[in-house]
Amino acid sequence: MKAIIPAAGIGSRLRPHTHTAPKALLHVAGKPILGHIIDELLAYNIRDIVFIVGFLGEKIIEYVSENYNIRANFVEQKELRGLGWAIHLAREHFADDPILIILGDTIFDLDLDGVIKGEYDSIGTKIVTDPRRFGIAETDGRFVKRLVEKPETPTSNQALAGIYYIKSIKLFDRCLEELVAKNILTRGEYQLTDALGLMLKHDCKITTFDVEGWYDCGKKETLLATNRYLLSQIKTVDGRDDVIVIPPVYISPTARVSNSVIGPHVSVADNAIIDSSIIRDSIISSYAEVRHCLLESSLVGNNSTYHGRYNRLNLGDSSEIES
User: Fold this and answer.
1) What is the pTM of this model?
2) 227: CB partners within 8 A, 6+ apart
3) What pLDDT was estimated at residue 163?
4) For position 143, what pLDDT does the model report?
5) Residue 174, number of CB atoms within 10 A of its CB
C-alpha cells in the first residue's frame, strides 16, 4: 500500500511562520505536523510514501531524508491549481495497490485497519456545525451519492476530513486525467472532489468512514487546539531542578529551560532556550529563545528571540523582540 501526502500549500493563514517554513513542518506537541502523519502511517507499516511539495519543498525533502528510513518519492507542484491537480501530478507513482491520500496539514487519530480492509473506496468524514468551509459528502446511509466542494447552501454536515482510501486505482487515474483534459474547474481549481465525483458517475461505489479524531492545523487557533489535544495523549516530561512543570507538557531533551513555570499545554522544541518565564498554552519552536516573559496562547517561531513581559505573541521565524 502507498500513501500520498500533498504538502505544497503556502499556509497563508499561518503567516508569518510560513514565510520561512512549509506549513507541514510547523511544530505541534514536540514534532512537525508531518512527523505526526508519517509516524501514524508507520504504525500501520505503510512505508511507501509520495510527498507533493512546493514552496520551500527542499525543507520537507531534508526533514524526511534525515529522520525517516522509508521509500520516499517527492513530486514538485510548481503551480497551486487545486488538490485534484496535485494528485494528478503524482499519477506516475500509482501502481495496482490501493493508495491512502492524507493532507499534509491534517493530524488524525483513528483505526485505519477497518478502512484498509474495507471492500470499497472510502472517504474520511466528520460531522461539523458549519460545512460551508469544507467539501461535503451526501450519502444514502451507506454509499456516497454526491460530493460538493465548499457549498454555499450545504445539504449535508458530513465534512471531508482530508483522508481518502482509493482501491479503484485505474478508474481513479482515468478520472484525474479526464478532470484535467476537460478542464473541469471548481472555484478556479482542479478539485479532488470533482475527480471522485467522476468516479461516482462511472458507478464506482464509495463509502465513508468516521474520523472522530481529526485535528486541523490550518491556522493559529486550530494549531494550538491540536497541540492541547496531542499533549494530553503523551506522558509529560519529568520536572527539572528549577522548573515547575504543569502537565500536559512536552519539553525536548535538547531544550534548555531554567527558573521557569511551564504549562499546561506547552510544547518546547529542540534546542529552544527558556529562562525566567511563565509559559502556558503555547508552542516554542526550535532554537527559539524566550527570557523574562509571561506568554499565553502564543506561537514562537524557529530561531526567534523574545525578551520582555506579559504578552500574547504570534512571532515568526528569525524574529527578535525586546520590551
Assistant:
1) 0.86
2) 28, 29, 265, 267, 283
3) 92
4) 93
5) 15
* Whether residues 112 and 242 fall in one domain: no
User: Do 274 and 154 share a domain, yes or no?
Assistant: no
What cell numbers appear for 147 in the block? 460530493
Q: Which of 173, 191, 221 is the last residue of a domain?
A: 221
Positions of the chain with pLDDT under 50: none
Identify the pLDDT of residue 314.
Answer: 65
One domain for residues 273 and 195: no
* CA–CA dist 122, 207 (Å, integer): 5
- Residue 6: asked if its preceding bond is cis (omega within 30°), the reply is no
Rounded-to-integer distance, Cα 265 and Cα 296, Å: 10
For 77-105, give the DSSP string. Answer: --S---HHHHHHHTGGG--SS-EEEE-TT
Burial class (CB in 10 A: 0-12, 13-18, 19+), 20: middle
- CA 14 vs CA 3, 6, 80, 169: distances in Å: 25, 17, 17, 34
Does residue 231 belong to any structural domain of this protein?
A: no
pLDDT of residue 131: 79
CATH number, domain of 259, equals: 2.160.10.10
Q: What is the pLDDT of residue 102?
A: 93
Q: Name residue 250's beta-bridge partners.
A: 267
| Domain end marker among 221, 254, 273 | 221
The pLDDT score that the predictor gives to residue 278 is 94
